[in-house]
Structures are given as structure tokens and as C-alpha cells.
Amino acid sequence: MTEYTTVSIPKELAERVDETIEGTSFTSTSDLVRFLLRSIVIQHQRSGKLTESEFEEIAEQLRGLGYLE
To answer: pLDDT of 17-52, one tens digit each?
Structure first.
């Protein structure tokens, strides 16, 4: 059985995410967060190390998608 933990984000961001995922395969904010975190972790594991510039590139992509301010 998979155990879960809670991650808190501002309500305003959660509302923006809910609007953003409408019409996508993501059914909840949690689905999107799991996808994004899994993607970052996989990229890190492949390269052996996530550099600051790689992290900034990911953050910039998320900003462009409206997930980060």
C-alpha cells in the first residue's frame, strides 16, 4: 500500500492550477504536483546531479506555464 504525505501550497496557486488543468488528463492539483516532482526527480537521477542551472531551467519552464510566480 502506498503511503502519502501532504504538501501545502497557497490557495491562490491551487485555484490557478485547477483552472490550468481543466481539459487535461490531470484530475487534481495533486496529480499535477506528483507529475512535476516525478519529472524533476527522474531528470536528477538520470544525470546523477541536478545542477543549479538545470533547476533554474525547470523553474523557468514552470513559470512559463504559470505554476510558479
So the answer is: 888 888 989 898 888 888 888 887 777 777 777 778
Q: What are phi and psi of 39, to 5 degrees?
A: -60, -45
DSSP state of 27: -
Between the alpha carbon of residue 16 and those of residues 9, 27, 30, the distances in Å are 11, 14, 13
Outline where DSSP puts E strands in the chain.
none
pTM of the model: 0.59
- Distance in angstroms (rounded) separating the CA atoms of residues 59 and 11: 20
Q: Which helix (H) or strand (E) holds 40?
A: helix 29-47
| 8 Å CB contact between 6 and 56 | no
